[in-house]
Amino acid sequence: MSSSSGGNGIEVRGLAYLDGNIYIIQGGSKSIGVYRTEDNYLVKEIRSDRFDRLLDIVVCNSILYGLDQSYIWQIDNNSNVSEYVSLSQVSATMSASVRETRLLVTSSRILSKYTYRPIGKPAMSKIRLPEGLMTATLWHAQEIADGHVIAHVETGKFHRVSKIEESESKRAILEVCAYGNEAGNGNGQLSNPVYLALEPEHGHIFVADHDNQRVVVLDRNLSRVMLISALPTGSYPNRLCYVDERKELFVGMSNGYIIGYKFTW
């Protein structure tokens, strides 16, 4: 089952769910729109003169975090905005860990992890990548129970989602499985996989297969489970947000549409 809203022609650049509301960032915006999930009512807009081209938004440990070109911002229940951490490089996307204690920030070449500390700023560490991914352009990453899943493009030709793990025996980071290779729309192919979302109970990975105008659903070993291809004409998926308590995937589109898909697994 699906439901849709929006379609104002401005791409969705951030999408998060918290306490019955959907939080939306649109391209070029310096504000976050807060909409009631049940009827798409605009509850409020969160604005700050400190925002610098908002790029993404996530919920971690029931707290809202926004990403722009220079900072990660923490936003409390009263819409007060405070600096969480400054960034040393321009990043594109952000995700929350399955344990909800860490933020994973993706730039074109680097994955950075920020772990919450009760006192002071979060601790930052960098995720080591396999040698084969060192020249890839990274779009988005998601921490999973036994490693990380990364959506990336290699030399502008190979469009892949890779699962990487640390090998204790070899003391190295390895690509243990992957989905996609040369760009295409067939089985085993992707074209600009720009975003990921995790369904934690079964380990499903949702992939925003942007140029193919679809969402690919993979299992924990990155084998295809299903396709979601019934998107409105001219809609290209940019952002994904899976809400486990609702068993619902929200898909943010290039033309402003937000579409929700319910699952029964």
Principal-axes shape call: globular
Distance between the termini: 13 Å
Enumerate how many helices there are, as a single number: 0
Note poorly predicted spans. Answer: none
Total beta strand runs: 24
> Tell me about the biggest sheet?
4 strands, antiparallel
Strand order of the largest sheet: 1-24-23-22
**Strand share of the residues?**
over 45%
Mean residue pLDDT = 92
SSE class:
mainly beta
Radius of gyration: 17 Å
- Summarize the helix and strand pattern as letters: EEEEEEEEEEEEEEEEEEEEEEEE
Helical fraction: under 10%
Question: Can you tell me about this structure?
Answer:
The structure is a single chain. With 265 residues, the protein is an all-beta fold. It is 0% helix and 54% strand. The chain has no helices and 24 strands. The strands form six sheets. A four-stranded antiparallel β-sheet has the order 1-24-23-22, with no helix packed on it. Strands 2-3-4-5 form a four-stranded antiparallel β-sheet, with no helix packed on it. Strands 6-7-8-9 form a four-stranded antiparallel β-sheet, with no helix packed on it.
Give a nutshell description of this structure.
With 265 residues, the chain is mainly β. It has strands spanning 2-5, 12-18, 21-26, 31-36, 42-47, 56-60, 63-67, 71-75, 81-86, 93-96, 102-106, 111-115, 123-126, 136-144, 147-154, 158-167, 172-179, 193-199, 204-209, 214-218, 224-228, 237-243, 248-253, 258-262.
Q: What keyword list fits this structure?
A:
globular; single chain; four-stranded antiparallel sheet
Summarize the topology.
Blueprint: E1 2-5, E2 12-18, E3 21-26, E4 31-36, E5 42-47, E6 56-60, E7 63-67, E8 71-75, E9 81-86, E10 93-96, E11 102-106, E12 111-115, E13 123-126, E14 136-144, E15 147-154, E16 158-167, E17 172-179, E18 193-199, E19 204-209, E20 214-218, E21 224-228, E22 237-243, E23 248-253, E24 258-262
Antiparallel strand pairs: 1-24, 2-3, 3-4, 4-5, 6-7, 7-8, 8-9, 10-11, 11-12, 12-13, 14-15, 15-16, 16-17, 18-19, 19-20, 20-21, 22-23, 23-24
